[in-house]
Every structure is written in C-alpha cells, then in structure tokens.
Specification:
single chain; ten-stranded mixed β-sheet; six-stranded mixed β-sheet
Length: 478
Amino acid sequence: MFEKRQFGDLARHWGIGAEVGPRFVSAAILIAATLALPSVLAYGQTPYQAARGNITFALTGDSIISRPLSAYVEPEFLAMVEAIRGADLAFTNLEIALQTVDKLTPMVSDRESYMFAHPSIAGELAWAGFDAVSRANNHALDYGWDGMRATSRALDDAGVAYAGVGENLALADEAGYVQTGNGRVALISTASSFDTFHPARPQRPDIRATPGLNPIRYHRTTTLAAAEFEALKKIAQGLGRNVEDAAERFDFAGETFARGDETGVSTKADPVDLQRILASVDAAKRQSDWVIVATHTHESAASRELPADFLVEYARAAIDAGADVFVGTGPHILRGIEIYKGRPIFYSLGNFFFENETVRYRPSAEYRGVDLPADSRTVDYYDDRQRTQGGYFTLDAWFWETVVAMPRFEAGALEEIRLLPVTLGYDTPRARRGRPMLAGSELGRKIIDDLARLSAPYGTEIRFEDGVGVVRTTPDAP
C-alpha cells in the first residue's frame, strides 16, 4: 500500500495536480507498468525489485513530545521534516504514553518523572514522516499497562509501527515490521534502564505473563587494587558474609568485586538476555531485508559521553547476528559513531523532541519533596524544578543539540551517512524549547565537530560539507 507522501511524489512525477486523488495515481502506475511489460518479458527480468537494494534511513534520538508538530511553519523545521519524509524509513524513540488525561493512572515508581501526551500525537508523528518507533525505555510504563496499551492503539490507528513492549516477553522481544519500496524493515527495541517492574515476563501455560518492555540487563564488576580488595573483604566478613575463601572476587551489597591491578568498573551484558535478543535478530533477519536494533541505555563508562562496556559488547554482537543498523538512545546527549563490519553503530543520538517542560499534568508523586502549596499548578512545579534541580537540563547546551542520522545503503552495502545538525532551542523560552529544527551554519559546524571528536576513537571520520556532516565508507574518487 502506498503512503500519502508516495502518492504526492508519484503525482508530481506524472504531472498530476495535488487535487487528483490516489485512485488516478494508481491508474497511471498501472498504465506505465502495462506499457513496460513487453520489455520486461523480453529480457526475462523478474518484476520484483531486488532485495537488499538501495535504502536510506532517517534515525533520531529520544522523543518526548507534548505539543502538535504540524502547526509550525519555520523553513528550518519544514526542511528537516521533508528530509525525514524523504527517507525510506524514519525512526525515533518514543518516550511518552499516548493517553487522554481522564484515563491516566500513574504507576508507583522510584523515578519521579512521568511523561504523556494526547493520542493525537501519533498522527503528528505520521505527519512528520515517522514510520517506526521504539517503545522499550524507562517511560514505557509511566502510566502502567493501560498506558502502554493505549499508546499501542494510538500508534496502530496512525499506522506507525513499533517494537519493545508487549503482553509478555515473547511479544515485547518480537520485531515490528515496516514495508518500504526498498524492502521490508524489522525493528527490535530493547532497554537497559528501567524500574524493577518494567520488564515483561515469559508466558506460562498455567498463568498469564506480566506485560512490559524488552530488557537487556547487565552485570557490573568493580575491580579493586589488592589492599582495597582485602579491606572490603574484611568489612563483608564483619557483616556476616561468608567470603573468607574468595581469593579473586566476591559479591557484596548487590555488587561484584574483583581483585585487580587498579580500581575500575566494567559491565557485561546479561548472557541470557543477550542470547534471547540475538535470536530475535536472527529471526527478524530471516523475515526481512533490513534489521534495525535499538536500545535505550542511560548507563555510561568513565564519562557520560562514553558508552558502557556492555553496550559496546551488545551493539557489536547485534551486528554479528545480522543487524544492519544499531541505534542507541538514553543519555540525552550525542555519543560517537562506529562503523563495525560495514554497519553503523550510533551509540547515542541524544534528544530529538525534548518537550518535557510542557507536559500538561504531573502526578502527585512528582511533588514529593517540593516546597509548594497543595493547590499549586504544573507551571509552579516547573518553575520550582528549574530553581532547585540545577536547571533540569537547561544549563547545559549539549542536551539541546543533536543530528538526524541518514545512513544510505547501495546494493546492500553502507555507502555513506549524512548527519543533519539540529538544534532544540537551548536558549529559547520554555514554550518553544525542545522542538527540533535544522541548526544554522555556525552551530551546525559546532555540532558536527563535537560528533567528529566523539567518533574519532572508533576510527570514524566525519567531514562538514555544505552544512551537514558526512561519513563515507568508500574512498573519495580521484
């Protein structure tokens, strides 16, 4: 089935005015196909387009959307939307529940930040050209299973595919699919950052499973120098732990500690989760032409800019299993790009829509510890949060700078990645801040230069050309 934007492109190609409906465009296509039939048969060619041909993706980061998209008319915004619409498949990570306020019931959570928007936002995403969204993230169950299900219904109604949540683990682990003119695309969505009640559980014959998200858990090991290791071992023994025979490692206070030459922290993906997800990648590969694996991962290594060890392990394993693209979100900033075995790994695409300051209502849990009257309004809460929580992202420009990543494949091989620099309006008022649009030349160069610095350790070279970043995987022509 053709999408609306494809009808428009075909109409322009055939010289048909915008007022002419899809039925006439379909007729024109049929006539063209009929005229071409003799030549196709003469050469013995199959009428099916070759799988693993040419395809372009538009990939973006975290989307917290609280305002309509289609109302805006700035050229920089509309140009960005046209670029997204022009891709064969456009993706974002949806970090909100889509539900009407009368149905909202917040889940009890240790994390006091709840996101929702009206279900009409699903249609706005479709208007902007988005075909698929990842759902496995720490906001997937802000409003419980009802909110999760309402979001699924809204996306289904809008024709936007999704993955990462489900009524049981098998469904949360399953890929979502999008049919494009250049092949069938599978999306697998996972998360490592979530509350304990978020993961979906396996189904049993005798009792219903727990709905939730698709988890990729990890194990953390703290390495201590010999003296520190022995000192902590004595503390553990003093508290009744049986660790006297632990020569190289022991578990204590929910952590694993190991003896080493120097102090440090490392992480490894949980082997059970990893093998389950890799099996899903393999299955999706057999059911599609292209596979995208997405993860929502807040965790970092030594600094926020660096991905955790387990994320690097996971991303490369996903490519080894058959993924064509790996997309990370979660830390709210850009991280480096790696080209691994000819496939792109985006360790984080940062924020894309970051309208967390105009979510209309907040549950009472968010007001705990806030020195405000009981009848205070949501805007009072935002003002107080701005004063007391270090600006809540607004003091640091890097949270408000991102890219639309557009990898292009030709004959199944990655040809180049175009990186459109985008600003979220760091220095604009609250009512405007958080909406993306193409950055000007000066800020655009700064964004691409920052991303080039972050990507250099992976051997990835990014050039700033004609206002965009470019990664080429083939040598320049002489």
